[in-house]
Amino acid sequence: MGSTGDCGNGKAAAGGGGLVVPEIKFTKLFINGEFVDAASGKTFKTRDPRTGDVLAHIAEADKADVDLAVKAAREAFEHGKWPRMSGYERSRVMNKLADLVEQHADELAALDGADAGKLLTLGKIIDMPAAAQMMRYYAGAADKIHGESLRVAGKYQGYTLREPIGVVGVIIPWNFPTMMFFLKVSPALAAGCTIVVKPAEQTPLSALYYAHLAKLCTFDIIIQAGVPDGVINVVPGFGPTAGAALSSHMDVDSVAFTGSAEIGRAIMESAARSNLKNVSLELGGKSPMIVFDDADVDMAVSLSSLAVFFNKGEICVAGSRVYVQEGIYDEFVKKAVEAAKNWKVGDPFDAATNMGPQVDKVQFERVLKYIEIGKNEGATLLTGGKPTGDKGYYIEPTIFVDVKEEMTIAQEEIFGPVMSLMKFKTVEEAIEKANCTKYGLAAGIVTKNLNIANMVSRSVRAGTVWVNCYFAFDPDAPFGGYKMSGFGRDQGMVAMDKYLQVKTVITAVPDSPWY
């Protein structure tokens, strides 16, 4: 790739070597309905993982900018229209925003492809439609928020109200920039909250574009409503500065975070040391894929490959620990190696590509380090394990066997295309091995036996269990973890609870004939 041009002012980057580089239109912070420079004037570089070259210079938020964004969100919450609109009015605006996402889907998929190394084709047919669907799901929930009538003792009447929690800080990761944005923002908007989003510094581009789309929603003459200024704010920056300022801010009522357990701990500590704000965390995973003797081996290999190599392994629910029952183990291993070798690694804008580059140099080197650790600890590398391509952050799909439970590659989240293949004899052994992890985000089961499927799904300590499928997400299906995979749920109506307070109102009724 050649010169990046004047990316800091939002102009298009010039591509070389046949690579497609989308035009970068938005590079500034979005605060109170306007794109603005950082107070410090600083910018940071976001890079194309296909080459390592600079895509754009992005305004770098720090504490001063977060203060301004929170102030705008607080003003919009305390005195603005959004929390005071009817749920029906909010739902109309949210549906319009979903319309705009669909209208700009190709451009948005290209931004995530260039910024995160995600497959362009899947962005168009999965990520963007799913984002719009998520927004529409919660648009449908906006006018269904209500409390309960209470049967209280004595001469009183009681009821509850469910009210928006206030200003919400949203800190999202880099692996699914679009889906993570809408996973958090959609229910918060439906609840009537105002929001400050801190996107990952590796992938800020699509979040800024969504801020632009929200601005386009500021007024609609037909529905006489829109997304008011201050309701959605986007402050790209780094975790130790912008992220820390958001999680420790005394005027933020709640923080919703997806990312590593290490940062999740820091956010909890910041929340506790500041105003004891509400926190929800969706953290790491080391998910097991359990394949039983009665499984269709070809189907099981296909599912297992998808579970760990999809999105280059950069997915919190990656089924990176694959347990195969001894009766089909040898056949499975042979076919799994063949499948891995057939996964095409290359430019994510090429429709024939199965796997793009890791998101950046840091993650690229992290994955390679874990591969070396696996070899040094005695695991056998069957295929992959090396960088590929002349430039960029590409790694071959990698499979290890002879992996022991105590090995680092079996215990720590790698977040890359690395499969650990292990053997088991009995159902009870499979359950014990599956639960031998500090995480509990997801699990997969492949079997034709309904009794086994039911027994294992009830015994594995994980927030989501997929039987004879994987990555089967839906807006109506709650998602979150056990143990060190965090707490709180995204998706489903239960996710609304994170963004609502319950208020009890009790009124004396001294002359009531019922008491």
Automatic annotation (TrEMBL):
Which spans are transmembrane here?
none
This chain belongs to the protein called: Aldehyde dehydrogenase 1
Enumerate the GO terms in the molecular function aspect: aldehyde dehydrogenase [NAD(P)+] activity
Q: Which residues form the Aldehyde dehydrogenase domain?
A: 35-505
InterPro entries from the UniProt entry: Ald_DH/histidinol_DH, Ald_DH_C, Ald_DH_CS_CYS, Ald_DH_CS_GLU, Ald_DH_N, Aldehyde_DH_dom
Q: Which SUPFAM superfamilies match?
A: ALDH-like
- Subunit annotation: Homotetramer.
The species is Oryza sativa subsp. indica (Rice)
Ordered alphabetically, the record's keywords are: NAD, Oxidoreductase
In this protein, the active site sits at 282
Task: Describe the family membership recorded for this protein in Swiss-Prot or TrEMBL.
Answer: Belongs to the aldehyde dehydrogenase family.
Catalyses which reaction(s):
octanal + NADP(+) + H2O = octanoate + NADPH + 2 H(+)
